[in-house]
């Protein structure tokens, strides 16, 4: 899995969340470990996903700026993507 591409996909999903956070009750980021696809689901849906899907709490991938705005936490996003690097 290309970690650079995965990082872009995760960032895209996080930005989708940030565009409409009120639409989500308890958003989770999912990563399909076979295809490298990243998506958003509600936490209750995550329980029914296949074992090849990893879930992350969306709040671990955002941070608040000093002015009170939520933005993508690029460091944490990069860390998640890096965890899929194949040696």
In a nutshell, what does this entry contain?
With 87 residues, the chain is of the alpha+beta class. It is 34% helix and 25% strand. The protein is globular.
Outline the structure in words:
With 87 residues, this protein is of the alpha+beta class. It is 34% helix and 25% strand. A hairpin with a 5-residue loop joins strand 1 (27-32) and strand 2 (38-42). The longest helix has 17 residues, at 3-19. The mean pLDDT is 94.
Silhouette: globular
Q: What structural class is derived from the secondary structure elements?
A: alpha+beta
Rounded mean pLDDT is 94
Order of helices and strands: HEEHEEEH
**Secondary structure tally: strands:** 5
Radius of gyration: 13 Å
Q: Helical segment tally?
A: 3
How far the N terminus sits from the C terminus, by CA atoms, comes to 11 Å
β-strand amount? 25-35%
């Amino acid at each position: 899995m290309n970690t650079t591409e995965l990082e872009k996909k995760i960032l895209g999903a996080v930005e989708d969340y940030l565009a409409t956070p009120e639409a989500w009750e308890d958003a989770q980021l999912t990563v399909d470990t076979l295809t490298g696809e990243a998506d958003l689901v509600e936490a209750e849906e995550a329980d029914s996903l296949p074992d090849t899907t990893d879930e992350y709490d969306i709040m671990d991938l955002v941070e608040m700026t000093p002015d009170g705005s939520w933005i993508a936490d690029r460091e944490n996003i990069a860390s998640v993507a890096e965890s899929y690097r194949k040696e």
